[in-house]
Design brief:
Two copies of one chain form a homodimer. By secondary structure, chain A is an alpha+beta fold. The first copy, chain A, folds into two domains: 114 residues, PurM-like, N-terminal domain (60s Ribosomal Protein L30, Chain: A); 166 residues, Phosphoribosyl-aminoimidazole Synthetase, Chain A, domain 2 (Alpha-Beta Complex), CATH 3.90.650.10. In chain A, 31% of the residues lie in helices and 23% in strands. Chain A contains nine helices and 14 strands. In chain A, α4 links the parallel β5 and β6. Chain A is globular, with a radius of gyration of 20 Å. The two termini of chain A are 30 Å apart. The mean pLDDT of chain A is 92. At the A-B interface, α2, β2, β5, α4 and β6 of A face α2, β2, β5, α4 and β6 of B.
């Protein structure tokens, strides 16, 4: 096929990159999903929707999980499904109150595996303090499903009236913080999937962040914006910030926490760790005056020990995301195009 | 394999019947899902969970859709996904305020098909007056997914303080009502799947029932209990009522509305229409004194023209669901064991 053929085909059928959290996916969402379903709330494209009831504000979100393999160092599809949805609610500033669990299971799937994964769902839900309150189970015929199990979790959270987050609140001079090392989840799944052995076992960071985020908000930090860097990684989140706030972002390479083994694996396999998925990380934009207080609160939490100030919001025309390298050079960080790591979550 | 081998296998792996809405599924839920995840709300096993926020009550529900084929007379997977979740919220007495849409799409899926289905989602959501407010898209590799598309919808509804529904409110003498003909959805999907041609085209009844149900509640009918007879059909709902209320149910065969073509198809193919899935039907239990008023309200609605009083709640030891046949005989209606019609929704 020529390049033109490939381009033509990608305009006619779904390709893997449509699910990768990058440019292709953004186009699918704009040209097909929002074209059909668009409304004021959905068009926001936030991690969760804010719903107003007659008496309160809610956050509502959903995620499907197709990770392969189902179990990997540091977690499994069950832990991932709970943490992914809780984190989407928490980064919207919500206090999660209930989860749903939809299962699509292949005929022939071992009940012992299902039990292990359900127990993992239960453990993560208990850890987060958020119960699974409703569910659905479908069984599909053998031979169509790959890993044998897809999960969907949706979640509902209460949104305090005092919480106001959004791209529009981000200002030049704000600090960009992250609660720990980047790339752990993506590289852990990749290493076990490909049977690659490293000297150190890579472990997924899958973790519920509602506790850590609640402590940051309770401490009175004036958080402008939060997002969890899952598919598309840190690069995807920073590209979203830059595009939506109309501001630049400067990140300092030597401040971005990355585990040595993850860095080695990423370099060996040719991945940019900034684009690799995380499942227990949050990027926060806070006023510079609140930076150290916020880091202090985060570092006291078990999921924030290696929290770091990785950069700042700047003006710029055009607004760019730039990485200041260890040697003092600058390189533009681009949103990943498509799916670098298929079925990573 | 001997019968013992089959039994042993069904205790070790997932079989199709685990997803059929019958006894096997009830066992999977009890022994595996509730064993791991059980809590007071989930244990209720209602169509949706009632969540209390600090200021109000919500209903929250989820459903995955794996129907094959994706498009069938009277609807498609998109309409099904919207109606299924809206109906689960509505039968709990909730006023739906928002839906989520999770898509798992196979690589190579035609964008034109996706657009058709997304437009169908949009049409059903508009008809119901409930927007899709949040979503998620995953792409999986080619060759694992059968139809190429699985959907999940979750939904949130507000629950009026005045609404109190539950098995415990059902009393002997209550009337059992249904809003129209039974078996349309299941037989429509089956006929197109198997390329069976009947003289009349069978059409799915997929429809959002939140409007009809809101009118019944607004009319002041003291509804005791509602449920939508999807997988497992009317037989499944009546078995649930009998088991949970500890009361018998008597249904009169000649009062149960069934389209002639559906009856013919079901008889020809050996299906009991009482166990076949519906996607636009609700079973209501109301005090006998409210029966005619309720039927009047229902019949004025486009989705209730053929509403009927099909039977009554009775005492009984043991409590049974009985069908009074046209010839005046009685037969016990049993909950279907497993999956009569795989991938029907």
């Amino acid at each position: 096929m020529t390049v033109a053929d490939v381009t033509k085909q990608t305009e006619r059928v779904i390709v893997r990159a449509h699910g990768g959290g990058g440019e292709m996916m953004a186009r699918l969402i704009q040209d097909h999903i929002l074209a059909a379903l668009g409304n004021r709330t959905l068009n926001e494209l936030t991690d969760g929707a804010v719903l107003s009831t007659t008496t309160s504000r809610l956050v509502f979100t959903t995620d499907s999980f197709v990770v392969a393999p189902l179990e990997f160092p540091g977690g499994d599809i069950g832990r991932l499904a709970v943490c992914g949805t809780i984190n989407d609610l928490a980064v919207m500033g919500g206090r999660p109150i209930g989860l749903s669990l939809g299962m699509i299971i292949e005929e022939g799937f071992e009940l012992s595996s299902l039990d292990r994964i359900l127990n993992s769902v239960a453990d993560a839900a208990t850890e987060a303090g958020v119960p699974v309150v409703t569910g659905d189970t479908k069984v599909i015929e053998h031979g169509i499903g790959g890993t044998g199990l897809f999960l969907n979790t949706a979640g509902v959270a209460e949104l305090d009236d005092a919480v106001h987050l959004g791209f529009s609140r981000i200002q030049p001079g704000d600090a960009v913080l992250v609660n720990g090392t980047l790339g752990d989840h993506g590289m852990a799944v990749l290493s076990v999937r490909n049977g690659i052995e490293f000297q150190t076992i890579l472990k997924s960071d899958a973790a519920p962040l509602n506790g850590l985020i609640a402590e940051v908000l309770a401490a009175g930090v004036d958080v402008r914006f939060m997002r969890d860097p899952t598919r598309g990684g840190l690069a995807g989140v920073l590209a979203d910030i830059s595009a939506n706030a109309g501001l630049g972002v400067e990140i300092e390479e030597d401040r971005v926490p990355v585990n040595t083994a993850v860095r080695a694996a990423a370099e060996m396999l040719g991945f940019d760790v900034l684009t690799v998925a995380n499942e227990g990380k949050v990027v926060l934009v806070v006023p510079d005056k609140d930076r150290e207080r916020c880091l202090g609160v985060m570092r006291r939490h078990r999921y924030g020990r290696r929290s770091a100030n990785i950069g700042r919001i700047v003006t710029g025309d055009p607004p760019l995301v730039e990485l200041i390298t260890r040697t003092g050079g600058r390189r533009i960080v681009q949103r990943p195009y498509g799916e670098e790591l298929p079925r990573i979550c």
